From TrEMBL, chains A, B:
<dbReference type="Pfam" id="PF00654">
    <property type="entry name" value="Voltage_CLC"/>
</dbReference>
<feature type="domain" description="CBS">
    <location>
        <begin position="607"/>
        <end position="673"/>
    </location>
</feature>
<feature type="transmembrane region" description="Helical">
    <location>
        <begin position="335"/>
        <end position="357"/>
    </location>
</feature>
<keyword id="KW-0967">Endosome</keyword>
<dbReference type="Pfam" id="PF00571">
    <property type="entry name" value="CBS"/>
</dbReference>
<dbReference type="GO" id="GO:0005247">
    <property type="term" value="F:voltage-gated chloride channel activity"/>
</dbReference>
<dbReference type="GO" id="GO:0005886">
    <property type="term" value="C:plasma membrane"/>
</dbReference>
<feature type="transmembrane region" description="Helical">
    <location>
        <begin position="522"/>
        <end position="547"/>
    </location>
</feature>
<keyword id="KW-0547">Nucleotide-binding</keyword>
<feature type="transmembrane region" description="Helical">
    <location>
        <begin position="160"/>
        <end position="185"/>
    </location>
</feature>
<feature type="domain" description="CBS">
    <location>
        <begin position="704"/>
        <end position="762"/>
    </location>
</feature>
<dbReference type="GO" id="GO:0005794">
    <property type="term" value="C:Golgi apparatus"/>
</dbReference>
<dbReference type="GO" id="GO:0031902">
    <property type="term" value="C:late endosome membrane"/>
</dbReference>
<feature type="transmembrane region" description="Helical">
    <location>
        <begin position="205"/>
        <end position="226"/>
    </location>
</feature>
<feature type="transmembrane region" description="Helical">
    <location>
        <begin position="233"/>
        <end position="250"/>
    </location>
</feature>
<dbReference type="InterPro" id="IPR000644">
    <property type="entry name" value="CBS_dom"/>
</dbReference>
<keyword id="KW-0406">Ion transport</keyword>
Length: 767, 767
């Protein structure tokens, strides 16, 4: 307490940065591919907020500005909610995706003679035979074979050829656009968004080019028939909108921490729009995407999702005044015994998830490490060709995947003409099903089951090779399709079992003869949730998304049971979800909040300098010259330097960032006269006493962080990891009995964690 | 770095506590009404976990133990989910609450002659006239007047008298039981649970006595007709179950941080059971109750809610194979224009919330500070008497509140006989409503509206005086009732407006002549959500609870709009919800994560010692005698002491807790010989060199926390507050250039915050 007044005697408004001096432009910004310092960003924001608040009473203009500032948070999420919708859903999903993608998709099969821009359904609107089975009976709609060959032989081959041709054209266009204009537009984008939200800078990843190219190529990629979905990329598109709109508000554009609040809300709005599931979107942002999710962000996300859902509701895209995509209505409740097949589906989902993650990561690693990754266009075209060629003969794979899921989810009613619903009662012309009597399957159902099984194998294999291609590719729809197919197969099996063995003790109680006691569509729904859960390891958000998607509030217990089982089974094989696995594959500095650090290492074992390293590069507070400082900066590569009282005492004063020092020196050279190489550099409040002939000293206190985080060398690493995670630190200094010993950065921690897990620590690439 | 080896040369397995030595019993526990140290608790748990894991391979028994340990988390939430249900819902809500409470409630009006233990509905099962209007026409059911006076005059007075008499008896019994057996059983319990979850010890608050008495008195309190609900107290009951079951697992019983994970899950299960809303329960725990909610706790809560929902589903209490309490089915969608009245309802909800919080807190403060609080029994009886006397004449207040809400939510169909549904089409005997034509209200509806308005005023006033009485009292149902009444009134008004002015431009588009375009029940639902939101300031969880409660997935946008408006309006008058207001009233040390700290103070302005205080009581690492140590302990009242290298250097070594020092000294005196008053006390690894004749020294290193949290004196308080919140600290040391300056405790921070908000800092009472 005696010597406490040395550098600390400033006025009480002196903060992290010395505010009395003019701020140096550029100080406090970040380089590309660097980690941000959450604490500093938050302090900057509160400082800005206080400045505006203190001026508030000066004039009406300042008051308006403060009001605008206070409401800009809500405004930016409103804006994000609106255009995400208008851009992504109106322009893309509706006019483009729901029309263009449908049109492009149908273009693979044929063309509408009456109006070229009509898709199959619009074209055949009058003929009332738009169901899958009767697809080719509409007079205006001509398949390519009919158009080119007439009704002659070889029409199947011709259709096959044109289907493949169009699929390849779309795929080629998509991958070329991505390659030429916006390389960041490929993939689902969720791993990168997770990394960005955890506090990392990837410039251009959420820019306008990415937005535009991703929107266009997404439609092309979906239309090309590749095994991918558009829901994941829509989250990326939403985050691009959020990022672009945040530039309208200096509060958000100039503060990386605040910007991430907007991005969290934007990803909620993205899911809200992609699935029509506002609450599910908020929970998705909370559970899967966001790193920090304070209650304020929860409310903002809720609001963004509300705006998106509201616009969705006003436009009414699905024509049933409901928000939901796959609205289903089942007529029978579920029975306790059915939990057993549901849990089996959960096990299948978990196994599929674990298998998919391993296989996909192995393939992506191969792509990264071998020569083969150098030809992305060729790869996409190859995969698209194989997909198209294999998919065409099977109606369940030729079909749009969303439509397939919808068909699988739907309960068999009297009006359902799908092959899956050819039960004996229906074939007899009796319209009494499902209240009616004969739930025995006809050969039609069995052949549908065979086709579904083949479709299942096809989807499983193709999805592994598709996710990670250089086109926008989501994983939600393919995963759900795989689960829905498996679920429907299990559902029909259980149904037939109950039909033929209705006197078993299991069925006797509740399944009367002829009664319709099993709903195969429900099994498809549960299977879809389980498979998606196995891949992404989401729980609560997934259940909410699925039940918002289908309106099946009563089936929450089966869904929860399957999803929970799927997560447990998946976690038994590896705790990472697909997004975390891709983050690790790319070497991003992501400190996962889900993984627990369980080792017994101490801070001093992780800190640099290690035992045989050079001593830590430090600055002293008032006895260095500019030349010495520049020498230290040029000789080391670290991002920041601790400042100490003197070499002898090693007592810590603060921390200065390399980037800030460089900018400050350049700025001083430009603006202040008399700064020379032998100028004294000081970080204290008052200049040190210098000889009379010495040049003008350079004060760098304004860039000194006077409240660096410190831990003692005895601190267990589990605490250090916890501090880094919860506070979002970039670095932390290590002391022993008040003396500086070393430094721990986020990269050190990640490398240490990789080492403890017997992985290559060099895989962590960025700071 | 030179002097780094002094006390730090221990082996790498030396941690926070020196594990090589035998642990001293009692060290690491807490006093009643003290704050826990989250970081230390978590370290303790990981240490325990590592110990079990390292032994795992030794024998099959150890392996089983490690498996049991790994699964005990899921096991305890399963157990919590089950008995919460069996106790709270089966025993209480079903056999007790849904039967006993109904029976008790009906006992106020009359008795069943054929079977005394039948309530009104069970008694009149055969007569098919169980609706409210025809209530007195069942032959077996006798009102008190009929029983005592026969059909003579004065029967109304007699019924009135008996109604009041029973209400008073129940209220008296409830308050007496609470007063005698378990004083902690009163109130809703949510403010205290929030405080406990934020890391505070209140012994007995979640004990078995509280559980038993709260369960019994809750039924009595509800039956007494007081304006209270049973949903909030059920969360408390659930937490009691969670706490009691956690004692079966040493992992949870011995670790305060882990126990709180179970309590978070328990509160989710509580809401899941109270409302039949599993997802809403998880979100309620996240948004309102819990302090730390890592993803692991999210999954556990989800699982507990799943178990609870599953049991609820198997028992099927509401007889409709649905989980939901107030299942509604509306026949018309909502229209864009209706958002305007919905937002108006949101404004009403926000105003009501703000008004209620202020009025209730003022009243509770009066109760605490004046003599009047000394007579809780008298107060409860007075309030119960007034409630009964005023409630009896109005059918809407005499009725059970849950039934009232259900009636208000329900859409008018042809079979509805409620007075609220006496539209002209129904009176004409035409059963075509709602498809039918005449939605004009009859005088019956208008008189119902009058009665509802009176009920609204009555409920508003009585709820203010009821919440805070010394009986178990929840706030959910009364708030929802107030909102539902207001909403229904607005709904009927809009409906009649649309009926009589269907050619207005607002209605013209979508409201054809005679069509049924407004659903007053939906307005009641939105109003209920808005009022509950205004009082508790919940958003996402509330919307999810309401739509799980009613099954109204399609009405998510109106609900979201109303709840968001309600929150904004409420926040404009004061940011605290009712639970936070009660926490502050009671002076609990709760560092609210929602409130932002926006002041510019620095750590050194908050730390003790202040400018004119005595110097900080510190211990030196190796030159104090036992007598000096005991002297310091007895002369000061602080809970812990920093340990420094020497008085001259003031360099910090670690931190020792008062409780631990006392226990360690007692333990040493009992077990080690030769410990005398002039024994040297040392905290270093090796004993200091002592004169030959000195007594045996006392080593206290095992109780020394060698990684205390430190901040510099220049750290802005906003960062310090953030650290305390996110890491759950109890205290933090303040240094300047490596020297110890002072200490900041959680209490210091809370007092400082109170001071900055111009409140009395002495209102923070606990450590």
């Amino acid at each position: 307490m005696s010597n406490g007044g040395g550098g600390g005697g400033a006025s009480s408004s002196t903060h992290l940065l010395d505010l009395l001096e003019e701020p140096i432009p550029g100080v406090g910004t970040y380089d590309d591919f660097h980690t941000i310092d959450w604490v500093r960003e938050k302090c900057k924001d509160r400082e800005r907020h206080r400045k505006i608040n203190s001026k508030k009473k000066e004039s009406a203009w300042e008051f308006t500005k403060s009001l605008y500032d206070a409401w800009s948070g809500w405004l930016v999420v409103t804006l994000t909610g609106l255009p995400i919708f208008f851009l992504a859903e109106t322009a893309l999903s509706l006019s483009l995706s729901h029309a263009a993608a449908d049109w492009l998709n149908d273009l693979k099969e044929g063309v509408c003679l009456s109006a070229m821009w009509f898709n199959h359904e619009q074209c055949c609107w009058d003929s009332n035979e738009t169901t899958f089975a009767e697809r080719d009976k509409c007079p205006q709609w001509k398949t390519w074979a009919e158009l080119i060959l007439g009704q002659g032989p070889g029409s199947y081959i011709m259709n096959y050829f044109m289907f493949t041709f169009w699929a390849l054209s779309f795929a080629f266009l998509a991958v070329s656009l991505v390659k030429v204009f916006a390389p960041y537009a490929c993939g689902s984008g969720i791993p990168e968004i997770k990394t960005i939200l955890s506090g990392f800078i990837i410039r251009g990843y959420l820019g306008k080019w990415t937005l535009m190219i991703k929107t266009i190529t997404l439609v092309l990629a979906v239309a090309s028939g590749l095994s991918l979905g558009k829901e994941g990329p829509l989250v990326h598109v939403a985050c691009c909108c959020g990022n672009i709109f945040s530039y309208l508000f200096p509060k958000y554009s100039k503060n990386e921490a605040k910007k991430r609040e907007v991005l969290s809300a934007a990803s909620a709005a993205g899911v809200s729009v992609a699935f029509g599931a506002p609450i599910g979107g908020v929970l998705f942002s909370l559970e899967e995407v966001s790193y920090y999710f304070p209650l304020k962000t929860l409310w903002r996300s809720f609001f963004a999702a509300l705006v998106a859902a509201f616009v969705l509701r006003s436009i009414n895209p699905f024509g049933n005044s409901r928000l939901v995509l796959f609205y289903v209505e089942y007529h029978t409740p579920w029975y306790l015994f059915e939990l057993f097949p549901f849990i089996l589906l959960g096990v299948f989902g978990g196994l599929w998830g674990a298998f998919f993650i391993r296989a996909n990561i192995a393939w992506c690693r191969r792509r990264k490490s071998t020569r083969f990754g150098k030809y992305p266009v060729l790869e996409v075209i190859t995969v698209a060709a194989i997909t198209a060629i294999v998919a065409f003969p099977n109606p369940y794979t030729r079909q749009n995947t969303s439509e397939l899921i919808k068909e699988l989810f739907t309960d068999c009613g009297p009006l359902e003409s799908s092959q899956l619903c050819q039960y004996r009662s229906q074939m007899n012309g009796s319209q009494a099903y499902p209240a009616g009597s004969d739930a025995a399957a006809t050969p039609g159902v069995y052949s549908a089951m065979w086709q579904l099984s083949l479709a299942l194998i096809f989807k499983i294999i193709m999805t592994i090779f598709t996710f990670g291609l250089k086109v926008p590719s989501g994983l939600f729809i393919p995963s759900m399709a795989i689960g829905a197919i498996a679920g429907r197969i299990v559902g029909i099996a259980v149904e037939q079992l109950a039909y033929y063995h209705h006197d078993w003790f299991l069925f006797r109680e509740w399944c009367e003869v002829g009664a319709d006691c099993i709903t195969p569509g429900l099994y498809a729904m549960v299977g879809a949730a389980a498979c998606l859960g196995g891949v992404t390891r989401m729980t609560v958000s997934l259940v909410v998304i699925v039940f918002e998607l289908t309106g099946g509030l009563e089936y929450i217990v089966p869904l929860m049971a399957a999803v929970m089982t799927s997560k447990w089974v998946g976690d038994a094989f590896g705790r990472e979800g697909i997004y975390e696995a891709h983050i690790r594959l790319n070497g991003y500095p992501f400190l996962d909040a889900k993984e627990e650090f369980t080792h017994t290492t101490l801070a001093r074992e992780v800190m640099r300098p290690r035992r045989n390293d050079l001593p830590l590069a430090v600055l002293t507070q008032d006895d260095m010259t500019l030349a010495e400082l520049q020498n230290i900066i040029s000789q080391t590569s670290c991002n920041g330097f601790p400042v100490i009282v003197s070499k002898e005492s090693q007592r810590l004063v603060g921390f200065a960032l390399r980037r800030d020092i460089t900018i400050a020196i350049e700025n001083a050279r430009r603006k202040q006269e008399g700064i020379m190489l032998n100028s004294r550099v000081y970080f204290t409040q008052h200049a040190p006493t210098l000889p009379a002939d010495s040049p003008r000293p350079l004060k760098l206190r304004s860039i000194l962080d006077m409240s660096p985080f410190t831990v003692t060398d005895h601190t267990p690493m589990e605490i250090v990891v916890d501090i880094f995670r919860k506070l979002g630190l970039r670095q932390c200094l290590v002391t022993h009995n008040g003396r500086l010993l070393g430094i721990i950065t986020k990269k050190d921690i990640l490398r240490h964690m990789a080492q403890m897990a017997n992985q290559d620590p060099e895989s962590i690439m960025f700071n």
